[in-house]
C-alpha cells in the first residue's frame, strides 16, 4: 500500500499528511460532510507540460496520455484521524517499473520478426515498464490512520440495493491511455453517499485488443452509525478471444465484431448489448401552435424553395428506397454536403498557425481566439472560437435533424442522423489537430466524447424548447451559445434581444424547411432559390419579429 510517509515522494497537490489539497489557482473542490465523515472530490483539466515533466521525473516512467494529476477523491474522519484518498500519482507509482509484467500487443511477434535482420545491432535504450499502466493501487491511507485488518465480513450488498436517496455523487478520472491505439487503460473513482452509508469504487480497467481484458476493483464501504470501514479488492482478467466468443454465443445470429476503434469514428461504435446507438427525440414538429410560438410567421410572406419539376424529379430519383444498402452510401454523400453548410455558418480561421513563432491570442477562459465573419460574430457578438463554432454547428444540425424526422422510416432517420454526426466528429477532430495543435489522439478523443455528450443534451434541450415555448427554447440557446453567462465577451450585460433573434431564426428556418422535400435540401439549403437568400443565414425577418415590427411586404399584403 502506498503511503506518503517520510522518505516518500508526495503526490502533486498534497499536504505533509498525504491528503491532497486543491491547487492555489483552481476552483474549490466538492465537499460533503455527514456524521463526522468528510468527503472531498476534485476534477480539474489534464496536467500541462510542466507538471507532467515533474511527475515523470518523480515516477521514473512516462505517464499516460491523459493524466489528471490534480484530481482526487478523499474520505476523512477527523475525530479519529482516519482518512483515505485516491490520486493519480500514487496509482501510477504502483505500476510495475521493471518490465517483467509488460504485455505485448497482438501483432508484436510479427513486428519483431520483420526487424530481426535489419535492426540486429539496435538494443533497447528506453527503460522498460508496464506500458498498460496496470496498477494494484488500493488507496493512500493517512500515516496516522489505523491499518486495515483481514476480515471475513463482506460488504453488505443487500443494504446497498436499498432505494436510499443519494445525497452526494461524483465520478473522477485519474488517468487514461489508449495504449498506442491498441486498446484502453483507465483508472477512475466513483463515490455515492447515502444517509447511513457510502460506497467508493476505484476501478482500473484495461482492454488490450486481441490479447486480454483486465479489471481491478477496490471498494471502500463506510457505515456511518457503526463507524466501520470495509475495503474489498477484486482482481479479474480474461483472454480477449474468450470474452468475444462468450458474447457472440449470447447474441442471436452472432456476427464477428471488430474491436472498437477510435480512428473509425467516435459515434459509430456499438453498446455493450450490440444494439445501435439511438437518439431519443420528440416527433417532427411541422406547424407549432400560436400558444407555443410567440414569434409566429403566419403574418409574414412565406418563401417558396421548391425547385422546378425537372430538378425535383432528378433529385427524387437519386434517393433510394428506405432501409436498402444503397441508402447508406447515398446518405453519406448527402449528409456531407448538409454538414458543410451547417459548419460554414460560424466558420473561423486562426491566421497565426501559418506564421512562424506567432502566438495565438486567447480569450479570458483560455480558448484559442480566431477570426470569423458572419452575423453570429458581428451581430450577436459571439467570439470566433472552437466552442462557438461547435455550438452554432450543433444548432443547425439540430434544425436539420428535426426536418429529417419526417423521413419515410425510422431506419432512414437513424442512417442520416448517424452520418451527420460522424461528419461533425471528423471535422472537429481535424480542427483540433490543424488549428489548435492537439496532436495527441487520446486527448482529441476525450474532447470528442465530451462533444457527443453535449450533442445529446442539445437534442433534448431544443426539443423541450420547441414543445414548451420560446422562453424555454431561449433558455436553452442562452445556455449553449452564451455558456449561461450573464455578460457578453466585452463584460457587458447580455442583450436578451440577441437571444430572441436566435429563437426567431430557429422558428423561421424550421418553417422554411417544412416546405422543402428532403430530395431538395442539398439544392436549396446553402444557396437559395429564384433569387431568394438561402434558408440558413441572416434574415431581416428575424430582427423585425424581435423588434415588434412588420416587414413592408407584409404590411402591403394586409
Automatic annotation (TrEMBL):
An example Gene Ontology CC term for this record: cytosol
Superkingdom classification of source: Eukaryota
GO terms (BP aspect): TOR signaling
Pfam families: TIP41 (PF04176), Ubiq_cyt_C_chap (PF03981)
Ubiquinol-cytochrome c chaperone domain ranges (all copies): 379-522
Chain intervals for the UniProt region annotation (Disordered): 1-29, 255-274
Family classification: Belongs to the TIP41 family.
Name used for this protein in its record: Ubiquinol-cytochrome C chaperone, putative
Organism of derivation: Byssochlamys spectabilis (strain No. 5 / NBRC 109023)
Source species taxonomy: Eukaryota, Fungi, Dikarya, Ascomycota, Pezizomycotina
Amino acid at each position: 500500500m502506498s503511503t506518503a510517509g517520510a522518505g516518500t515522494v508526495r503526490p502533486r497537490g498534497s499536504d505533509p499528511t498525504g491528503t491532497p489539497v486543491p491547487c492555489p489557482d483552481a476552483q474549490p473542490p466538492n465537499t460533503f460532510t455527514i456524521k463526522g465523515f468528510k468527503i472531498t472530490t476534485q476534477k480539474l483539466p489534464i496536467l500541462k507540460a510542466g507538471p507532467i515533466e515533474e511527475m515523470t521525473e518523480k515516477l521514473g516512467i512516462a505517464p499516460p496520455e491523459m493524466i489528471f494529476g490534480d484530481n482526487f477523491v478523499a474520505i476523512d474522519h477527523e475525530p479519529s484521524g482516519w482518512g483515505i484518498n485516491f490520486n493519480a500519482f500514487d496509482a501510477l507509482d504502483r505500476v510495475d517499473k521493471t518490465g517483467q509484467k509488460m504485455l505485448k500487443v497482438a501483432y508484436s511477434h510479427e513486428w519483431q520478426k520483420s526487424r530481426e535482420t535489419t535492426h540486429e545491432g539496435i538494443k533497447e535504450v528506453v527503460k522498460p515498464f508496464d506500458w498498460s499502466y496496470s496498477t494494484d493501487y488500493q488507496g493512500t491511507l493517512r500515516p496516522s490512520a489505523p491499518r486495515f485488518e483481514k476480515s471475513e465480513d463482506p460488504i453488505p450488498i443487500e443494504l446497498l440495493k436499498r432505494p436510499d436517496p443519494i445525497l452526494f455523487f461524483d465520478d473522477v478520472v485519474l488517468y487514461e491511455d489508449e495504449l498506442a491505439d491498441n486498446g484502453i487503460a483507465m483508472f477512475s473513482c466513483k463515490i455515492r453517499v447515502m444517509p447511513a452509508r457510502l460506497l467508493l469504487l476505484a476501478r482500473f480497467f484495461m482492454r488490450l485488443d486481441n490479447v486480454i481484458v483486465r479489471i481491478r476493483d477496490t471498494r471502500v464501504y463506510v457505515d456511518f452509525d457503526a463507524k466501520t470501514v470495509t475495503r474489498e479488492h477484486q482482481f479479474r482478467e480474461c483472454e480477449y478471444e474468450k470474452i468475444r466468443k462468450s458474447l457472440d454465443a449470447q447474441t442471436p445470429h452472432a456476427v464477428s465484431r471488430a474491436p472498437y476503434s477510435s480512428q473509425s469514428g467516435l459515434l459509430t461504435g456499438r453498446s455493450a448489448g450490440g444494439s445501435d446507438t439511438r437518439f431519443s427525440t420528440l416527433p417532427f414538429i411541422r406547424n407549432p401552435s400560436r400558444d407555443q410560438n410567440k414569434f409566429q410567421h403566419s403574418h409574414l410572406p412565406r418563401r417558396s424553395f421548391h425547385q422546378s419539376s425537372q430538378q425535383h424529379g432528378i433529385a427524387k430519383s437519386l434517393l433510394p428506397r428506405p432501409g436498402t444498402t444503397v441508402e447508406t452510401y447515398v446518405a453519406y454523400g448527402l449528409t456531407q454536403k448538409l454538414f458543410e453548410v451547417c459548419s460554414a455558418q460560424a466558420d473561423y480561421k486562426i491566421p497565426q498557425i501559418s506564421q512562424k513563432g506567432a502566438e495565438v491570442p486567447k480569450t479570458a477562459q483560455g480558448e484559442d481566439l480566431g477570426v470569423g465573419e458572419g452575423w453570429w460574430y458581428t451581430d450577436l457578438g459571439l467570439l470566433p472560437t472552437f466552442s462557438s463554432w461547435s455550438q452554432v454547428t450543433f444548432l443547425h444540425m439540430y434544425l436539420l435533424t428535426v426536418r429529417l424526422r419526417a423521413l419515410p422510416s425510422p431506419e432512414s432517420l437513424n442512417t442520416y442522423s448517424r452520418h451527420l454526426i460522424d461528419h461533425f466528429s471528423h471535422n472537429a477532430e481535424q480542427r483540433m489537430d490543424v488549428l489548435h495543435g492537439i496532436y495527441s489522439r487520446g486527448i482529441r478523443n476525450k474532447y470528442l466524447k465530451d462533444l457527443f455528450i453535449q450533442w445529446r443534451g442539445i437534442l433534448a434541450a431544443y426539443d423541450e424548447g420547441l414543445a414548451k415555448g420560446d422562453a424555454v427554447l431561449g433558455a436553452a440557446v442562452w445556455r449553449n451559445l452564451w455558456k449561461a453567462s450573464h455578460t457578453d465577451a466585452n463584460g457587458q450585460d447580455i442583450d436578451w434581444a440577441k437571444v430572441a433573434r436566435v429563437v426567431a431564426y430557429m422558428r423561421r428556418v424550421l418553417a422554411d424547411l417544412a416546405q422543402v422535400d428532403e430530395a431538395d435540401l442539398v439544392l436549396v439549403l446553402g444557396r437559395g432559390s429564384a433569387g431568394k437568400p438561402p434558408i440558413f443565414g441572416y434574415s431581416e425577418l428575424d430582427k423585425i419579429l424581435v423588434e415588434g415590427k412588420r416587414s413592408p411586404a407584409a404590411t402591403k399584403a394586409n
